[in-house]
Amino acid sequence: MSPRENPYASPVDALRAFLAYFWIDRSEQVALTQWKTYVQESSQQAVLLLEHLKAVVENPPTDLADILQRHGWVYLFHDDAPEPRPYSPAEYVEWLRQMTARLESIYHSEQR
Asked: What is the pTM of this model?
C-alpha cells in the first residue's frame, strides 16, 4: 500500500478499526505496546491513523462514547466517589485527545 492510499472511508471508520485492532480485550499498557510495534512495522499507516484520530478529536461524533464502548470495550468511570460515575461525553473526548497525544508521542519516539 502506498503512503497516499487511505483504506478508511472516514476518520470515524479509522477510529473503529483502531479500537477493534488495538483495544478490544486489552489493557491500556498492552494496547500501547502493540501500537509501538505497529509504528515500528507500519509507520506510514500509523501516521494515517494518527491523522484520523486527531480529526475525530477535533470534530467528535455525538456518539463517541458509544463508539469507544462498542468497538473498543472502552468504558470510562470516575472511581473517586462511593459509586463509580461514568464519564461525560466531553470527558470521553478528552480521554481520546490524551490517548491520541500518547500515541503520537510513541510514534515520534520510534522515528528517532
From this structure: 0.89
